[in-house]
Amino acid sequence: MPESRVHSRRHLLLGGAAVSTGALLTACTSNEPKDQKPATNAGPAADDKPGAPVTIGFAGPQADHGWLNAINENAKRRAEKYSDVTLEITEGSNDTAAQIGQVQTLINKRVDVLVVLPADGKALTQVGLQAMKAGIPVVNLDRIFASPQAYRCWIGGDNYGMGLNAGRFIGEKLKDKKDATVVELAGMDSLELTRQRTQGFDDALKNYPNIRKVARQAAEFTVESGQAKMAQLLQAQSKFDALWNHDDDQGVGALRAIAQAGRKGFLMVGGAGAKSAMDAIKADDGVLKATVLYPPTMAASAIDLARALGQKKGVGGMAELEIPASITLYSAVVTKENVDDYLPTGFS
Predict the structure, then answer these.
(1) Is 282 in contact with 339 (CB distance < 8 Å)?
(2) Domain Periplasmic binding protein, which positions (predicted)?
(3) Cβ partners under 8 Å of residue 200, min gap 6
(4) Going by fewer Cβ within 10 Å, which terminus of the chain is more open, N or C?
(5) 279/288 Cα distance (integer angstroms)
């Protein structure tokens, strides 16, 4: 799963899914925008005419997770929308040394721009610095390099915001229930992103004194781990009112464990935005009532930004001549009421 930087004042907080050089996403002005529909990866704006040819090198980790596979697919599909873009894509790897070698190969090919989702942001910082020193601008995707000198632009998700919005959703659902209890199925505790999601969730619950978190289990972002750890939670907790699950892939396993135990009487909120989760939310015949987005369409946005850099353009909808230094995507909450809007962004 992705690991990103905690949001900061230097980040531009954006709502929706993808940034186009023809139309910048509208910034969110509230936690629950009512009239604005999310952008989809439908392609560049009609008035975004072809420009100078740009060769973009794309290096991501191994697609061994639904979200990571969606990252690669979004990048490929977005590049195909542009007649002036050539995409040089590497074979994804979770081996740091292998990915460094792949990025160095792209540097040696003298691509115009690099888009890199590092397997380990800290470990790949040096190769980012190498590219920038060679005059190749880098779009750092999601997992952040250790130095801002290693990239021209960072774009990624808001892990703290995921937990915050999950906590707010659950809090509003349970605000009138006396002595409400919640449990948490987290991701991998070795990752900063997991700690950020938990912190956001805990901070949101501070606004609801009637709600207590009574248990937490960390899984590993897999179906198998989700099922095993959820089974442990269910055995330990005979009753609770809500479950916050960090990841929709491990949520598939969690739902299996819940079904096997025959448990009902609580609501579940997932994370990331898998199509299977959105389908379950739309059907509304189980415990899963919402999922908080961590949109893989950020890879499509990264291609847009790389194209703009290669063509020395700014981003449409902004007054500045240059693209932003940092963009944080908004963690929208998908519910039965808005799921049809977001289904096109769901990943398998």
Answers:
(1) yes
(2) 56-312
(3) 159, 160, 161, 162, 163, 164, 165, 166, 167
(4) C
(5) 10
- The answer to whether the CB of 218 falls within 8 A of the CB of 251 is no
The pair phi, psi for residue 334, each rounded to 5°, is -95, 125
Separation between Cα atoms, residue 238 and residue 254, nearest integer Å: 16
- Residues 14-31 have a mean pLDDT of 36
Which whole number is the average pLDDT over 55-79? 92
Show me where the domains of the chain are located: 12-158+296-331, 159-293
Same fold, 12-158+296-331 and 159-293: yes
For the purposes of burial, counting CB atoms within 10 Å of the CB of 235, is it exposed (0-12), middle (13-18) or buried (19 or more)? exposed
326 phi and psi angles, rounded to 5 deg: -155, 135
Other C-beta atoms within 10 Å of 214: how many?
16
Class of domain 12-158+296-331: alpha beta
How many other CB atoms are there within 10 angstroms of residue 220's CB atom? 17
| pLDDT tens sequence across 262-318 | 999 999 999 999 999 999 999 999 999 999 999 999 999 999 999 999 999 988 888
> Which CA distances in Å does 237 have to 197, 228, 308?
22, 14, 52
Task: Name residue, tokens 């790949």.
Answer: 124
**Neighbour-count burial for 61-71, b at 16+ CB within 10 Å, e otherwise:** bbbebbbbbbb
pTM for the complete prediction? 0.84
Fold of the domain spanning 159-293: Rossmann fold (3.40.50)
CA 129 to chain centre: 24
Averaged pLDDT score across all residues of the chain: 88
Q: Among candidates 285, 268, 3, which has minimal Cα distance to 121?
A: 3
